[in-house]
Amino acid sequence: MTGSLAASDLSVRYETPHGAVHALRHVDIEAHPGEVIGIVGESGCGKSTLVTALANLLPANARIDGSISYNGVDLAKLDAYHQRLLRGDEIALVSQDPMTAFNPVLTIGDQLVDFQHHRKDLGRAQKRARIAAMLGRVGIADAERRMQSYPHELSGGMRQRVAIAAALLTDPGLLIADEPTTALDVTMEAQIIHLLRELRRDYNGIIIVVSHHLGVIAELCDRVYVMYAGEVVEGGEVDAIFHDARHPYTQALLACDPARFHERLDRLPTIPGSLPNLTQPPSGCVYAPRCDRAFAPCTTVAPPLAKLAAAHVARCHAVTP
Ligand code: ATP
Ligand code: MG
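^ thats the input. predicted complex w/ magnesium ion below
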């Protein structure tokens, strides 16, 4: 099954002894079958919180408001059993640390058999054949031998491939990869990007890629959402974001991208200032304290998400359609 995904007015807060952390605030996103969506923003801006909410894997101290629908069904209205069914198999998350996806004491082969628990029509031998084929598809040549390995015996890049294979074995309509290349060196990173590019050719579901690395997003995605301090501040087609960014934060993020500098710099430019305290988010625009274009209303009135073109939106008082 493939379907469209829509999150609307989605907010998540984490309850902590120091108060509630407002990690996600009033986020609207949508994605359609065949699309690759990028989520980009600085560390701590809520990217993992957003995708973990979509996959229904938020920790126990998280409180969620707003709605998430998949294939026209409001997921909050499903009973717990159908939620688990949909979000375990139909919506698959490859998490930021692939090691956490695996049980250290079971072989890769045994774990990948378990990932196919929904395929009651297949016997163990058929499941193992499916695994071997899937490992081949993610670029693991000696699949039979690798199935005998334990997770710690694989390199980081190989673990990430296996995690992607594991997610694909559930036949998901929505595949989410949270920072799929962050833990890897440059060569491995290029290989995983190549793999994701290959996958998108014959996959007709939705792929969501989370990264703070602009190059990864530019290479893989059709549409991009830029997040800042728990909000989506700009969204649009990849060309619009990279060549006609309108929000001052997106512009600043692009200006700091190391790929723009052909010579090696001793110090990369950074955006002055730091993320606001998410236990007390500012009442106006979240970016105003760091924005060189801020004017009177910015510090008191939160800007709405304005539509600039068909798919291009930005949340900024200084940007007009
Ligand atoms: P990174 O790029 O570093 O992965 P991110 O954009 O994925 O960052 P999140 O992990 O979603 O950001 O975190 C958003 C905010 O929520 C941060 O301030 C973080 O400290 C906080 N946070 C995340 N998980 C929890 C939790 N379980 N309890 C309390 N606060 C949390
Ligand atoms: Mg994260």
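The chain has a mean pLDDT of 89.
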